[in-house]
Write a structure and sequence with these properties.
By secondary structure, the protein is of the alpha/beta class. A hairpin with a 2-residue loop joins strand 8 and strand 9 (174-179). The longest helix has 15 residues, at 379-393. The relative contact order is 0.11. The structure holds alpha-D-glucose-1-phosphate-6-vanadate (VG1) and cobalt (II) ion (CO). Cobalt (II) ion binds at residues 92, 113-114, 278-280, 282-283.
Length: 544
């Protein structure tokens, strides 16, 4: 195995966003592009000699090519072992679990998550540290800095590795182990939930279900767990085969993109439970017959019912949500008298709180929920949590949600996304909002008096690190909020996200359509940011 040092020149755009570096496949295919970034990561990690690295991705176009490149670079850079999912596949939560279980030094996850895949679409790469979670901003800033100064990368001459045969082989100084991507994860799920109860509920047809894997990574996981282990019919998992282009769809679990599921769930033939996950398996969409559960509500409901699940029967140490996520979970924390933390968008901010045992559950409005079982959000975990809940409570999804609102009130919530906005326009929207902040407090708009208007800045209570400019928030005296932020995961122009919420304590008013119930605040958001006026658009691209 001959180590080669290849001269290279820096690319100036390798700045990781909310969740790793995401670019068009064509960008990653430029000479040395992937290599530069991987070498920049390796150069920033300290001593990596003889350490173990986990490697896998969501199976999108360029996954296999990238894995072969990374194998050679890992060997040249002195790693002692690589643990790779068979076929180059690992869901994001499964990769997190494998890093933890086998005490690896870290992992590289190849995914652009919910972004579309294919030769003209997106690819991504993310480094996770030894706790199994995404590298903190301290790391990602170091990767970026290194990428701007890089002059060479290391690789070896080596035949491509057969990614499809399970087993270990020693090649020179590196051991390469190909593992089944599902079995460790399936075992972990069995240690958390009541699988016997789930089997009974499914075999007796008390629970009927449909899971849409969206032609992405969760197909093999869902088939093994829901069908093979829990006994659901094979038709219960649709779009189960991971495809390089996700069948030409966005592997983004919302009502717009998981339309097959959505149609069925709002029809007379709806099963009791329906769910979907995203490209890399860390997101979840939860639906029941004739109901869609907003992710913010789902987080609150899981927190309120966690004691019914075997792994959480002793209660929760605390909970956390990302800043734009609705305050529904805060109400649960207040009632149970446990702490509730508010973090910036992105899972990397939950890691320290989970490691320190300060929280057990956490989540984001963007279809992400998770717990201390791994250090990533986890789509199938959330699905099993809901199934376990339905089985224990013997209630439908709609009844569980309505019960929750009855008890805690409803935080009516929605998010509007304006995608691929020209970057200068998006930046000017944010700058102009920023300028308005000092003048907003005290202003009255209809029934709404502005209580505070600021830019969210987070201080990590464990390591003291500070993350600035994490979204503009406008809070009202009655607890309502409007939040504006620019996405950090897109690859074309800029995406403006507007998050809107209002609390409704009156149970008689709980069954309202969110868009109608929030109409006044939606108009006010436009008045403040003028996205429609400045872009000439009439509607958001996606409403969730
Ligand atoms: C989005 C979501 C954020 C999530 C991130 C990664 O980021 O809003 O909550 O953590 O995607 O999820 P942004 O910066 O585009 O708003 V995934 O499933 O792409 O790993
Ligand atoms: Co994802």
């Amino acid at each position: 195995m001959q180590i080669e040092t290849i001269p290279t020149t820096p690319y100036n755009d390798q700045n990781p966003g909310t969740s790793g570096l995401r670019k068009k496949v064509k960008v990653f295919q430029q000479p040395g592009y992937l290599e530069n970034f991987v070498q920049s990561i390796f150069d920033s990690l300290g001593d990596i000699s003889n350490k173990t690295l986990v490697l896998g991705g969501d199976g999108r176009y360029f996954n296999r090519v990238a894995i072969q490149i990374i194998i050679k670079m890992a060997a040249a850079n002195g790693f002692g072992e690589l643990i790779i999912g068979q076929g180059g596949l690992l869901s994001t939560p499964a990769a997190s679990n494998i890093i933890r279980k086998y005490q690896a030094f870290g992992g590289l996850i190849l995914s652009a998550s919910h972004n579309p895949g294919g030769p003209d679409e997106d690819f991504g790469i993310k480094y996770n540290v030894s706790n199994g979670g995404p590298a903190s901003e301290t790391y990602t800033e170091a990767f970026y800095k290194r990428s701007q100064a890089i002059t060479e990368y290391k690789t070896v001459t080596l035949q491509d590795i057969d990614l499809d045969s399970i087993g270990s082989q020693q090649i020179g100084t590196i051991k390469i182990t190909i593992i089944d991507p599902v079995s460790d994860y399936a075992e972990l799920m069995q240690s958390i939930f009541d699988f016997n109860l789930l089997k009974q509920s499914i075999s007796s047809n008390y629970i009927t279900l449909l899971f849409d894997a969206m032609s992405a990574i969760t197909g093999p996981y869902a088939k093994r767990i829901l069908v093979d282990i829990l006994g659901a019919s094979s038709e219960s998992v649709i779009n189960a085969e991971p495809l390089e282009d996700f069948g030409g769809h966005h592997p983004d679990p919302n009502l717009a993109h998981a339309h097959e599921l959505a149609e069925l769930m709002f029809s007379e033939k709806a099963p009791t439970f329906g769910a979907a996950s995203d490209g890399d398996g860390d997101r979840n969409m939860i639906t029941g017959s004739n109901i869609f559960v907003t992710p913010s509500d789902s987080l609150a409901i899981l927190a309120a019912n966690a004691h019914l699940i075997p792994a959480y029967s002793k209660g929760l140490s605390g909970v956390a949500r990302s800043m734009p996520t609705s305050q529904a979970v805060d109400r649960v924390a207040a009632k149970y008298n446990i702490p509730c933390y508010e973090t910036p968008t992105g899972w990397k901010f939950f890691g320290n709180l989970l490691d320190a045992g300060k929280i057990t559950l956490c989540g984001e409005e963007s279809f992400g929920t998770g717990s201390n079982h791994v250090r990533e959000k986890d789509g199938l975990w959330a699905v099993l949590f809901w199934l376990n809940l339905i089985a224990v409570r013997r209630q439908s999804v709609v009844d569980i949600v309505h019960d929750h609102w009855q008890k805690f009130g409803r935080d009516i919530y929605c998010r509007h996304d304006y995608e691929a906005v020209e970057t200068p326009i998006a930046n000017s929207i944010v700058e102009d909002l920023r300028k308005q902040l000092p003048t907003l407090p005290g202003q009255i708009f209809g029934e709404y008096t502005v209580k505070y208007a600021d830019e969210f800045c987070y201080e990590d209570s464990i390591d003291g690190s500070i993350s600035k400019n994490q979204g503009i928030r406008i809070g009202f005296e009655n607890g309502s909020r409007i939040v504006f932020r620019l996405s950090g995961t897109g690859t074309v122009g800029a995406t403006l996200r507007i998050y809107i919420e209002r609390f409704e304590p009156n149970a008689e008013k709980h069954n309202q359509d969110a868009q109608l119930a929030l109409a006044f605040l939606i108009d006010l958001a436009e008045q403040l940011c003028e996205v429609k006026k400045r872009t000439g658009r009439t509607e958001p691209d996606v409403i969730t």
